[in-house]
Each structure stands twice: as C-alpha cells, then as structure tokens.
Design a protein that fits this description.
With 197 residues, the protein is mainly α. The chain has nine helices and four strands.
C-alpha cells in the first residue's frame, strides 16, 4: 500500500508540474516530423496482463514494422527530435500516466513486449509477479544499451542472449530486496545518471 500511495502521489505531482514541458515537447515533435505526438505499444505487465505503454514518439511512423530493437544514433528510424528526447530519457515521461492508472510503478522491472516475454524461463517469469516500472537497476546499468546494440553484429541476438538475461537477473534481485528506501535509491541514481549525459 505504501508503494502504491507513493506511486499515485509522485506521478500526480510530476504530471502537474511537467504539464508545460509536455506542451513544449509536443510542439517540438509536431514541428519536426509528421505523425502522432504520443506512441503507445502493448507491453506485458503484472500477472502477464498486457497494457499500453505510453511514450513521446521518437521514431518515424511505422518504424516498429522493422523490429523492436533500436541501435542509438545509428538507427535511421529515429527522428532528429527523437535523438534528443531519447538521450535524456524525456520520451519516457508519459509513463507517469501508466503509473497513475496502476499499470506500472515508478520503480520496478521494465515491461517487455510479448515477443521477448515468451522467451522467459519459469524463473525469469517471476519478474511478472510485481508491477513493472519506469526505472530499475537494469535501466541504470544499461543506460547505454542502444549504443551497445549498435556495435553488435546481430543486435537482436545480442539482446536476447546477453543483455536480456542480465537485466532479468537484476530484476530478480530487486524483487528479493525491494523496499521504500531501495526505490528512493534507484530514483536518485536514475536522475543522477540522466544529468551526467
């Protein structure tokens, strides 16, 4: 209950404070490329329940048809405005709405698309026992994931065989040790990491 109360208060406060910024970002995206301001994608949440995750659109319309894996600045599907929004994780801010709705928490395992969730082992599926989050230990450790994938000869294979299992191990560790102060630590580390970019 404490975690859910924190999620509601935190997401409500930030949505109110960041409303002017959201408007500026929307205008930035609108002036840059044609298409929708927001992007939504089905993700798998707690109890394997699917929900729509929201982001500011950072790719050209229809880019998802070419695959889910992105490879940083080498990915020509990303718009000019999208490169900036992704660099500072600004594209993730609309997920505060997912938190307020109850689909997600501020802190928790990042939600994955069904294609990759279907590859989870029974042990790895334990990450679906709690609400997914905007940030987690894996988000901090793999803050430059797209750059790593951009250097890989086969980005999807590298993600499935190397990065995804490592992130899931971190998520399982979080499930075993999570608490209010752990969440605060992850939030602070995430914000610090963004400002170091």
């Amino acid at each position: 209950m404490t975690k859910r109360l924190f999620d509601i208060l935190f997401s409500t406060l930030l949505l109110l404070l960041l409303a002017p910024l959201f408007l500026l970002i929307a205008l930035f995206i609108y002036r840059d490329t044609r298409g929708k301001i927001f992007y939504r994608q089905p993700r798998v949440g707690k109890g394997k329940k699917e929900f729509y995750l929201y982001k500011f659109r950072t790719m050209h319309e229809g880019a998802e048809r070419k695959g889910y894996i992105t490879v940083g600045s080498n990915d020509n599907r990303i718009t000019p405005s999208g490169l900036l929004l992704r660099k500072y994780k600004i594209d993730e801010l609309p997920q505060l709405w997912n938190v307020l709705k109850g689909d997600m928490s501020v802190v928790g395992p990042r939600p994955e698309v069904k294609k990759y969730v279907d590859l989870y082992t029974p042990e790895q599926q334990q990450v679906l026992s709690i609400r997914p989050g905007i940030t987690d230990y894996a988000s901090i450790q793999y803050a430059r994931e797209n750059e790593l994938l951009g250097k890989a000869p086969d980005p999807e294979k590298t993600y499935i065989e190397d990065i995804m299992p490592s992130k899931l191990r971190l998520n399982l560790d979080y499930i075993r040790t999570n608490g209010f102060f752990t969440d605060l630590f992850i939030i602070v580390k995430t914000i610090a990491g963004i400002f170091r970019r």
